[in-house]
Amino acid sequence: MLNLLAFMLRDLLRNRTVLAYAGLLLLLTTGLWWLDPAPDRLALNLVNVTLLFVPLYTVIFTITYFHNSRDFTELLVVLPLPRRAVLLGQAGAVLLSLSGALLLGLGLPLLLLAARLAHAHAGAHRRGAHLGVRGFVLRAGAVRARKNQEHRVGPGHVVYPGHSLRRAGASLGVLV
Hints:
Keywords: Membrane, Transmembrane, Transmembrane helix. This is ABC transporter permease. Helices cover about 75% and strands about 5% of the residues. With about 180 residues, it is mainly alpha-helical. The chain has one domain. It is elongated, with a radius of gyration of 21 Å. The two termini are about 30 Å apart.
């Protein structure tokens, strides 16, 4: 099953449609960031676009892929391979390729945004100003910085007052 998964995943990663999907998500995320750099509204816009676009593309691509690879699937079923391994290999390859494209298309710009916000926050923190963008990852409310205390932003994410944006940015990359 792993050999079949690796072969199909290699085939899918070379597919122009998956690369176009990653590029479109990258372009969309960068464009939304360029149009509205406020992190709150950017997160809302990305959630809306993701909830609309990702399931639609995933369903269409998966149906088209399985339909176009019908002859190859019939060839694999004739071989002495368990049918479960064939099905799991194909489904796993589609899942991993689309997940990788999603992480590349959404994760890369969001990690750059988190790094930019962390840099801006570090400069403002040295000047004594406060940007007020802590905890925007999950909109968990205001996170107040008290000396030597830790604050919970979301499930399993602990933010220390001195490093809040770096850790929140890492959470954003993992969550989205």
